[in-house]
From TrEMBL, chains A, B:
Name by which UniProt lists this protein: Homoserine kinase
Organism: Candidatus Filomicrobium marinum
Entry EC no(s): 2.7.1.39
Pathway assigned to this chain's UniProt record: Amino-acid biosynthesis; L-threonine biosynthesis; L-threonine from L-aspartate: step 4/5
Keywords, comma-separated and alphabetical: Amino-acid biosynthesis, ATP-binding, Kinase, Nucleotide-binding, Threonine biosynthesis, Transferase
Gene: thrB
GO terms (BP aspect): threonine biosynthetic process
Amino acid sequence: MAVYTEVSDDDLASFLSRYEVGELLSYKGIAEGVENTNYIVHTTTGPYILTLYEKRVSADDLPFFLGLMEHLAARQVTCPTPVRDRTGNHLGELCGRAAALVTFLEGFWIRRPKPEHCSKVGHALAQLHQAGADFKLTRRNALSTWDWRPLFERFASEADSIAPGLEALIKAELDVLETDWPLALPEGVIHADLFPDNVFFLAKDVSGLIDFYFACNDALAYDIAICLNAWCFEQDFSFNVTKARALLRGYEEVRSLTEDERKAMPLLARGAALRFLLTRCYDWLNRPAGAVVNPHDPIDYLRRLRFHQSVRSIADYGYGDGSR
Amino acid sequence: MAVYTEVSDDDLASFLSRYEVGELLSYKGIAEGVENTNYIVHTTTGPYILTLYEKRVSADDLPFFLGLMEHLAARQVTCPTPVRDRTGNHLGELCGRAAALVTFLEGFWIRRPKPEHCSKVGHALAQLHQAGADFKLTRRNALSTWDWRPLFERFASEADSIAPGLEALIKAELDVLETDWPLALPEGVIHADLFPDNVFFLAKDVSGLIDFYFACNDALAYDIAICLNAWCFEQDFSFNVTKARALLRGYEEVRSLTEDERKAMPLLARGAALRFLLTRCYDWLNRPAGAVVNPHDPIDYLRRLRFHQSVRSIADYGYGDGSR
């Protein structure tokens, strides 16, 4: 929610002169993106988003992220398309930072999603999984199951300051997940962060998916489990089975879940809840004094985790029942 | 530099339905404006700026500000034009705040203005003064000469923590300015905050003036004095007479200074420097811990004030000499 790097008009004009995008008309820093600095840039050829990658994004990962967006956009998954400069690169440098110019997507994210939005998101997620199947680059999930315990150990001794008993709860959960985590599920490119604010809608349809900066190779069904966490709980943290049913059905309009994926879903959903619980705990305990960005409250994901612990099968997510 | 109020898609769509601006396509909070929350809004009829007025702007002043922008825009002074809703109002309410939708101006502000920019700004300022002459509403300058001492007294005892001797210097300066301030200069509507970030350029021409939220009725020449402070000093605080000459000449292409105005200019420039020194000292001493907005360093204006104290006549600002 901040502009970390102020770009001068001279520097921007010089940067843009390397692209075939016409003349600069205006640019304004936008209050979106926790990790990077974003500007909305108008040129004589239209609107664009300019992203300057700040320190939390590894430069080594950028060819994967930008290449993926270009790959998906060419396969009708609407997402920002990186603009290549005259020499064919989609990665440049501006104000000492790696920078990219991408197409502007109309649409806006839905603050209070309804079941019909969840259905469209499920559909779009499956399309993303199919379109990503022939993407050549790979990226390891930096927040995979095996990264959770080392992350936890960085704040374990302070965990109970967030909620009494949290240290023991996470430790027990890690023991279960590391033992039972399914290793033979269908894998591919996943978004890994498809929260409501990363899905734009226009007139009830998905108009674009954004923010691919957690995308990686991992189990496809784990991406669905992330969406169950991100889209199917109410503001009072109650689980909305109608939304989950819509999401899973929307997904299966494009790609059917395998038997193994269906069986694994409750455990995957626990894992997804724990993954966000862990990063939120860490960010919460390490927020700088006077931070521009307010970290999310970790407790939201503790409640989601507890719900998933109570789930016996994918049927509890509304899967496979006849109701509408 | 912040979005103080988060607007939901439902609330925005409902707000926009009162205007003839088509359907909402996208909206993003922009990191501009210290006082208010601003969004860039795209609809099927084009881009707009949506402003939510936060607590530092008095609701009673909004009809003056919005009426002035509409008045000026109708007289070829390019500035954001408030959009009237279907009932003819240009002031609405959104998220419990007064809110207005204005047209989007292409252009961007010049980080390192050159003399030719100063010339264009002088020209545009005089056009604004002429176009404002028949504006019917009036607004008292809330930061006039007579408001400076009460403001100073709110932080006088802490002033020396900013710079040793500052309290005595400001006190002596107030004594001079309150005694000698000219009271019979031509008056009218002034912008009162025409800093580089409030002037958009496109291809070397002014494409728009923005941020009229300090506009008021006061001496026209005082507005020029503010611009001399805002545009004609270098980053090392040295005065650039070439820029000042260009600014004054640009102004006189449209409106000639009177004899009284020329005589008063050094004192007006001291007053303008003191006005910004005072508000910056106050903001500096009262910045909240962990503030999103970093206040400007007041010392910049102490240096400008000292320069103007050394000036003997408007000739020291490059006025009336034959050089180019």
